[in-house]
From TrEMBL:
This is Pentapeptide repeat-containing protein. Keywords: Repeat. The keyword Repeat applies.
Amino acid sequence: MATVSAVLVSASILGAVAIHDDSPTEQQQQQDLLVSNSQSSRVENLRFVRTLSSPNAHVRRPLRGIDLANQNLSGLQLPSANLVDAQLMGAFLVGVYLTDADLTHATLAGANASGVNLYNASMYGTNLAGVDFSGAYMRHANLTHSDLSGAILIGADLFEADLTGVNLDGACWDDSTRWPTDFGAIHAPRSC
C-alpha cells in the first residue's frame, strides 16, 4: 500500500509540475495564437472596409481606430472616411482615394501610398514616417505636426498643404515635388 501511495504522490507532483510548466513552447504557442487572432481581425476589418468603397462621399465610413496594418487597400475609394487613430502601418494604399478623409493621429509608418489621393485630408499629428508618397496628390491636406521623416515625396503634389511643424528629417523629394508656395523655395531636392 505504501508503494501505491508513493507512486500516486510522485505522479501528482509530476502532474503539478507539468501543469505549471510555462515552457518556451507553450509561450510561443500563445504568442502565435495572439498573432493569428490579430491577423484574422485585420482581414475581417479589410472585408468590412471593402464593403464601404464607393466614390460617393455621403456614404458613412466610421472607421475610427480600425486596425488595417499590412493590409492591401489598393484602389479603394473612401472619400470622407473617418480614420482617426487608425493603424495602417505597412499597408498597401496605392491609388486609394481618400479625399476629405480624417486621418488625425493615425499611424501609416512604412506604408506604400504611391499615387494616393489625399486632397483636403486631415492628417494632424499623423505618423507618416517612411511612407512612400511617390506621385501622391495631397493638395490642401492638413499635415500639421505630422512625422514625415524618411518619407518618399518624389513627384508628390503638396500645393497649398499645411506643413506647419512637419518633421521632414531624412525625407526625400525631387524637382517634380510640388510644395506650398511659401514652403518650396526653402527646400532643395534631397535624393533617396
